[in-house]
Design a protein that fits this description.
Order of helices and strands: EHEHEHEHEHEHEEHEE
CATH class: Alpha Beta
Keywords: Oxidoreductase
Strand content: 15-25%
CATH superfamily: NAD(P)-binding Rossmann-like Domain
Domain Pyrroline-5-carboxylate reductase catalytic N-terminal: 5-91
Protein name: NADP oxidoreductase coenzyme
Helix content: 25-40%
CATH architecture: 3-Layer(aba) Sandwich
Shape: globular
Structural class: alpha/beta
GO cellular component, one term: plasma membrane
GO molecular function: cupric reductase (NADH) activity; ferric-chelate reductase (NADPH) activity
CATH topology: Rossmann fold
């Protein structure tokens, strides 16, 4: 199994730190060329490997950590995303509700990747908290997962546990998943909730 993070801003780097902490190789890519990411990647750890977007999308499991509307450009890199697991880490705060046709933001993203095993997750924590060691206060920091494909959740939950987090499945995107999706200029109830699941 190979992993990549698409987007290397604050959230992408926070995710990269989680992989580096466990010495799990992860490819990172953004609109910038790999050499522009090299210094930051080295500073995080040897497990973080800069690549082009075209190479990064070859991974089995991808974290989509780009500004919200950039998901459309990423979706066009491959003709089909069949066989890929896509973890949507985007947030649509500030995106007008009318631009989403009344849908949840993750439903819109999922439509752009119709062949992928699609899971919303890792998006409710601020980057600084996401980057911190999730082994805290006698337990593990919680990450929420939601998907319309229950089978897609299990491998993502397993990865979350490998990274030291405690995954909690919220259900479908428009049900429990709506608790971690911004709407207009309103944050959903579970966003920024830094919860710890006891061991």
């Amino acid at each position: 199994m190979c992993y990549s993070i698409i987007g290397f801003g604050a959230v992408g780097q926070a995710l990269a730190r989680a992989f580096a902490r466990k010495n799990i190789d992860v490819t990172v890519a953004s609109r910038r060329p790999p050499e522009a990411l090299a210094a930051q990647a080295r500073g995080i750890g040897a497990a973080v490997i800069p690549a082009t977007l075209q190479d990064a999308v070859k991974a089995d499991t991808l974290f989509l950590a780009v500004p919200y509307w950039e998901h459309r450009a990423v979706s066009k890199i491959l003709a089909s995303w069949r066989g890929k697991t896509l973890i949507d880490v985007t947030n649509a705060f500030g995106v007008p509700v009318d631009d989403l046709d009344g849908l949840g933001s993750s439903v819109v993203v999922a439509k752009a990747f119709p062949d992928a095993a699609f899971v919303k997750g890792f998006n409710h924590l601020p980057a600084a908290v996401l980057a911190a060691d999730p082994d805290v206060q006698g337990g593990h920091r919680v990450v929420f997962l939601s998907s319309d494909d229950e089978a897609a959740v299990k491998p993502v939950a397993t990865l979350a546990e490998r990274l030291g987090f405690a995954p909690i499945w919220l259900g479908k995107l428009n049900e429990g998943g709506s608790l971690v999706q911004a709407r207009g200029r309103s944050w959903a109830p579970l966003i920024f909730q830094d919860l710890v699941k006891p061991r």
